[in-house]
């Protein structure tokens, strides 16, 4: 993972507040951001592998959905 984040800190704060938090520390929002980025990177890598295995260069919705199955409840 690069040192520059792909996800804005304000976005993670909004996600946490959406579920009822009144206040969110920057440290908590930053930790969520790091976790979401790691998960996103793993899903993206798996989706690329799936498309490559299928002989495609284009990542399709179904690649993302299949790659994300490990993270869904």
Name the features.
elongated, 0% strand, mainly alpha, Histone, subunit A, single chain, 73 residues
The strand count comes to 0
- How is the CATH topology named? Histone, subunit A
- Under CATH at level 1, the class stands as Mainly Alpha
The main β sheet shows up as: none
CATH second-level architecture = Orthogonal Bundle
Instruction: Find the structural class using helix and strand composition.
Output: mainly alpha
Spans of at least 5 consecutive residues whose pLDDT stays below 50 are none
- What oligomeric arrangement do these chains adopt? single chain
Determine the number of helices (DSSP H or I, runs of at least 4 residues). 3
Instruction: Give the mean pLDDT.
Output: 95
Percent helix, as a range, is: 55-70%
Bulk shape: elongated
In angstroms, what is the radius of gyration?
A: 15 Å
Q: Helices and strands, in N-to-C order? A: HHH
CATH superfamily: Histone, subunit A
Strand content: under 5%
Provide a compact summary of the structure.
Helices cover 63% and strands 0% of the residues.
Characterise the protein shown here.
The protein is mainly alpha-helical. It has one domain (9-71): Orthogonal Bundle (Histone, subunit A). 63% of the residues lie in helices and 0% in strands. The protein has three helices and no strands. It has helices at 9-18, 26-53, 61-68. α1 (9-18) packs across α2 (26-53) and α2 packs across α3 (61-68). The model has no long low-confidence stretch (mean pLDDT 95).
